Amino acid sequence: MKQELLTVIENAPLTDAVYRMRLSGCAGENRPGQFVNIRLEGFYLRRPISVCDFENGVLTIIYKAVGRGTDAMTRVAPGEKLDVLTGLGNGYDLSAAGEAPLLVGGGVGVPPLYYLAKELIKRGKAVSAVLGFNAASEIFYEDEFRALGASVAVTTVDGSRGIKGFVTDALPESATYLYACGPLPMLKALTKACPVSGELSLEERMGCGFGACMGCSIMTKSGAKRVCKDGPVFGKEELPW
Amino acid sequence: MVNTKVDLLGITLDNPIIPASGTFGYGYEFAELYDINCLGTFSFKGTTREPRFGNPTPRIAECTAGMINAVGLQNPGVEKVISEELPKLKKVFSKPVMANVSGFSVEDYAYTCALLDREEQVGWLEVNVSCPNVHGGGMSFGTDPNAAAEVTRAVKAVTKKPVIVKLSPNVTDIVSIARACEDAGADGISLINTLLGMRIDLKTGRPVIANTMGGFSGPAIFPVALRMVYQVSKALSIPVVGMGGVASAEEVIEMMMAGAVAVEIGAANLVDPFASKKIVEALPAAMEKYGIQKLEDIIGKAH
Lengths: 241, 303
Ligand SMILES: Cc1cc2nc3c(=O)[nH]c(=O)nc-3n(C[C@H](O)[C@H](O)[C@H](O)COP(=O)(O)OP(=O)(O)OC[C@H]3O[C@@H](n4cnc5c(N)ncnc54)[C@H](O)[C@@H]3O)c2cc1C
Ligand SMILES: Cc1cc2nc3c(=O)[nH]c(=O)nc-3n(C[C@H](O)[C@H](O)[C@H](O)COP(=O)(O)O)c2cc1C
Ligand code: FES
What we know:
The complex is a heterodimer of chains A (about 240) and B (about 300). With about 240 residues, chain A is α/β, with parallel strands linked by helices. Chain A has helices at about 70-75, 110-120, 140-150, 185-195, and strands at about 1-15, 20-25, 35-40, 45-50, 55, 60-65, 80-90, 100-105, 130-135, 150-155, 165, 175-180, 200, 215-220, 225, 235. The interface between A and B is medium-sized, with 26 and 35 residues.
């Protein structure tokens, strides 16, 4: 973890409510599946957001305006500086991928998988991605995943684009390993539907984001774990459901 | 050169800054970030007789100028703290540490304190009486002068280390509770623990915290904490450690003027992991600004 003062170089909408922010000047290390914790003027607690990409000190995050904090984030202008804790959490284990890993993301669970896909493809893996959204108007980063060289399937709940239904309706025949991030019901359904071993990224309300307060603890098969420090990525078999 | 040293019950602290229990773990998350020997000391996570997972999540809610937590005293239990956490701490912290103890019966407190009494690195026992008394209808020990005194006596009987009783602010008369602890043999008092609070999620109409209520802390509670430190330190003759909403060197000075001999920093460590270090570093300049040569001279100046 590092505390850094980063400069916003881009903050623009991708859809109605989903924004992409780019921050420059990041000296720390950020691996796929890790997150950052952002201090916003006027808010006491920081906001945890996954790393969507990291290259040459530029950090990319994608966030959805869902409440007062993320709403305020949409109004941060390029040039402004943000106090960010970077390199938080464990991240995905890339060495477990096998030859044909499957990446499944739902909504704003998609962003961390982009960085993961990029790193896996760099390592010569045949990456399949299933990206789930509610409707065509909410889709983002489909083309970016394709541009990386991943084979991409998109699902929408209302069928306005891609396969109608949930991510579990679009899983490929076979895969060597599963990496997923998204809402809890999606992760639970995936755990049942996907026979291969894998890793899931969880969310929890956080006090600190670096392991000090025990605010984010969950019970796993191997005991109490902090989502912020021991996670947010957990082995599929480690979770009690 | 200003003098930031203070005496806390016979042990000299290089400065009065003490990260508060529950916001600093057992020290080593922070030791990865900076040399924690720059602190006066710190109070480790509330430790109980048995291991505890604590409450279901969500355990955290944001508030204007503060936060609510309902962690529920998650800790590995005193035996593991002694066998695993303290040896790890010893490698990164060379000063006496404050051992924060919680319990759900008088026997729990005595049991845990008796074990920690044998630990060389433990400088003080900070006894958190904000917990519910399972034999007393679930009412917190800290809301009843007799129960608080009973815990104090039981702990004093099993240890030679200085005993600091940490009080809950959720009472009508803080001075009477503090006095009961002093009369029962407490060597010092620390306060305040968190204020009972809650938040409701407007979208669901349900409490944000799974446990419905939790402890409110952070900058918003500073004036309440300062007032209680003032009242208790004025009424008692034993030392008082002040805390509640402190996030700057100026607030440390204010707490000390209210009567605190040392000051604990809680939630500030969570929102800025370097908060305690920054306060230690800012203290000399703040002292100079107010013409303070020796920090000990200002303790209770407002009385
Ligand atoms: C490890 C991790 C990674 C995340 N990555 C992303 C991401 O890449 N993109 C994205 O859009 N969102 C992500 N989130 C969710 C994001 O943190 C929340 O949407 C955001 O904190 C909401 O803040 P708010 O002020 O708008 O909402 P409010 O509801 O007003 O927030 C109130 C409080 O609750 C907390 N909170 C609310 N919802 C969540 C939530 N789902 N998870 C954790 N805390 C919450 C807030 O941080 C704040 O402290 C992630 C969460 C975690 C834990
Ligand atoms: C996440 C969290 C956990 C806490 N856990 C404990 C604990 O285990 N024992 C204890 O005596 N106090 C505990 N406290 C209370 C603090 O030590 C402190 O008394 C209180 O938060 C007021 O200080 P602050 O406003 O600086 O946070 C906790 C506070 C927080 C925020
Ligand atoms: S949020 Fe503090 S330990 Fe995870």
